[in-house]
Amino acid sequence: MDSQVFREAATATIEEIITYFDTLAARDVVSSVQPGYLRTLLPTEVPQDGEPWSAIHADMDTKILPGITHWTHPNFHAFFPCATSYPSLLGELYSGALSGACFNWVCSPAVTELETIVLDWLAKALGLPDCFLSTGPTRGGGVIHGSASEGVLTAMVAARERFLRGKVPGWEGEYAGEDAEVEEVVMRARAGMVALGTGMTHSSARKAARVLGVRFRAIPVRAEDGYALTREGLAAALAECRAQGLQPFFLVATLGTTDVCSVDDFAGISAALEADPDGERVWVHVDAAYAGAALVCPEVQASTRIALAARFHSFTVNMHKWLLTNFDASCFFVRDREWLVRALGVSQAVYGNAASDGGLVTDYREWQIPLGRRFRSLKIWFVLRTYGIKGLQEYVRRGMRMGVRVAEALRARSDLFEIVAGPIFALTVFRAAGERGGAALTLEERNALTREVYEKVNATGKIWLTSTELDGRFAIRLMTAVRTTQEDHVDRAMKTIVEVAERVMKG
Ligand code: PLP
User: Fold this and answer.
1) Which of 34, 66, 138, 185 is 20 to 30 A from 87, alpha carbon to alpha carbon?
2) CATH fold of 397-506
């Protein structure tokens, strides 16, 4: 493809993308293709001769788009959003053009330096404590990871290193060529290490523990506590671990759990750790993958008491969920960057250079699991500048207002629905009401009715909802944080849900 063909193709593609967004509401949200549909449409081999763009482009409409579920559709109410915006797309375009595997500062100084700057901007915009700033008192800072799953794994690796260094005096963290006795002590200590989360913690924490070969314990949380981890719950789990000879070294505290958007009790967590004999050595990672975005609003900073995170060790928020930035843009903050470098700063001669060796610069390869990295800060910079704090606040507040609108519509039909959680952070979780025709329903009957409403609403193709299960109760999640969603989309969605529920419940 030469530059002239690229110019024409790219210009037409941009026009097409604009039309796609402008007409998105008219499409069905969810793709209706059957598994394996694409194999029947595409050849089995790479073509021998290169094809013209016109032929490739034609396949987008006929073969790819039918298999796309539209995450930016105004009636995408499933999971959490996966953001996009025009400034972010422009950032992606430049990033693709300025291609590089910018693992060290020297690979492209602007890539590293812009990342440090925009993550400091973001930390301040979210009201995070100073310890997470690169210029803060604890030598903290931020790095862009590909996902929150990568963030929790990174935090857990660093936490394990920090914990073991304290346990094995003089141990410098390298295993190769280590004194066999020391290695034995380290490996034995590893066997008793346990990472803690709750029954609501995202599965990525369990996966990280599995990757690292450490135990994971999920602390039960209760509906009466809003599904949040409490001081008592954590204290009991710590005591139980210690009684079993296990060593808790890591805790995930969540701000906005995936199922119900509950927020763990930061003050209670701090108090439980302070009261524990070895609590100071438990690394607390705050998973704010989705709801952390709402911290752009001062009222959310106050209600979540985010200032208390000054006691914790790391924090993740995905700008690619609720902050208008394309996937991937998972922002990870640490209170002492040295912990990451110690755990992940594995040297290799080929990566040495004067700036790195002189200790003058940040080399982000030492803050993450992969080596290579994309220029992701550019799209974040474009988004933050285009929207400004006020624009981001307005967008996040609109999503939350629409959550309240959903809850009002559900409450207005208490003969059909019961709210199980929310509205909080633009998420409302609900199920079928407890009675039908004046008779009380069993748990199984309510679950079956809720599932029937859920499946029939999704079968319309016009709305996409997801479900969850809470203490054996099947429930429907409805999220209203997609950029394109407006009040009338929510009202139409609620009308459909009510109509379906009337047919199911009354029929
Ligand atoms: N944490 C929470 C609370 C989530 O809701 C999710 C995904 O939705 C994740 C972590 C995992 O995010 P990622 O896809 O970035 O790994």
Assistant:
1) 66
2) Aspartate Aminotransferase, domain 1 (3.90.1150)
421 sits in which H/E element: strand 417-424
| Angle CA 195–213–148, to nearest 5 | 60
Instruction: Please answer whether residues 278 and 241 qualify as being in contact, where contact means their C-beta atoms are separated by less than 8 angstroms.
Output: no
Mean pLDDT of 84-104: 96
What is the residue-averaged pLDDT of the chain? 95
Structure tokens at 227: 């599904």
The residues, ordered by sequence, that sit 6+ positions from 352 with a Cβ below 8 Å of its Cβ are none
Q: Is 221 in the pocket of ligand 1 (CB under 6 A)?
A: no
Atom 5, ligand 1: which residue's CA is nearest?
258
What is the pLDDT confidence band of residue 236, given thresholds at 50, 70 and 90?
A: very high
Say yes or no to pLDDT of 181 above 90: no
The alpha-carbon radius of gyration of the chain (Å, integer) is 25
Please state the domain extents for the chain.
Answer: 100-374, 397-506
pLDDT at 184: 81
Characterize 237-267 residue by residue with b for buried, 16 or more Cβ atoms within 10 angstroms of its Cβ, and e for exposed: bbeebeeeebbbbbbbbbbbbbbbbbbbbbe
Q: Are 327 and 89 in contact (CB under 8 A)?
A: no
Does 204 contact ligand 1 (Cβ within 6 A)?
yes
Please give the CATH topology (third level) of the domain spanning 100-374: Aspartate Aminotransferase; domain 2 (3.40.640)
Per-residue pLDDT tens digits for 343-362: 999 888 999 999 998 888 99
- Is the shortest distance between the CB of 289 and ligand 1 below 6 Å? yes
Q: What is the pLDDT of residue 436?
A: 86
Ligand 1 within 6 A of 480 CB? Answer: no
Residue 156: name the closest of 275, 37, 248, 51 by CA. Answer: 248
* 268-277 pLDDT per residue, tens: 999 999 999 9
ipTM of predicted complex? 0.98
Q: What pTM, to 2 d.p., does this model score?
A: 0.96
Cα distance between residue 103 and residue 109, in whole Å: 10
**Per-residue confidence (pLDDT) for residue 346, from 0 to 100:** 87
pLDDT greater at residue 479 or residue 179? 479
CA distances, 346 to each of 186, 221, 333, 338, 365 (Å)? 19, 39, 20, 13, 9
Q: Is 454 in the pocket of ligand 1 (CB under 6 A)?
A: no
pLDDT band per the 50, 70, 90 thresholds, residue 102: very high
Pick the closest to residue 307 from 128, 140, 131 (CA basis): 128
Q: Is 407 in the pocket of ligand 1 (CB under 6 A)?
A: no
Tell the burial category of 127 from Cβ atoms under 10 Å away from its Cβ (0-12, 13-18, 19+).
middle
Task: Return the pLDDT at 175.
Answer: 60
CA–centroid distance, residue 149 to ligand 1 (Å): 6
- Centre of ligand 1 from the C-alpha of residue 345, in Å: 26
The pLDDT value given to residue 3: 96
